[in-house]
Amino acid sequence: MSVNLQTVKRVARLARIAVSEEDAERMTGELNAILGFVEQLNEVDVSGIEPMTSVIPMEMKKRPDVVTDGSKAADIVANAPATEENFFLVPKVVE
Fold it and tell me: Please, are residues 75 and 86 in contact by the beta-carbon 8 Å criterion?
């Protein structure tokens, strides 16, 4: 896959990025180099290789999946001018 000048300008317009003519030409070369590297990586046979989270074998740290209220409700409403049962009380506004 290769990127031309028209594609770079179109993507810049879609991203709402101002790109000058010389920057667009430079980006065309840079993007083609990046895409060439990605195509080179696609040629590597990775079948049978497990995905890794680190270069060192390790177990991912996981917390227990339990529902809690965060045990912080009282701290959250502590500075509120008016609360009731850990809810903020606000004046009713009718216009």
Answer: no
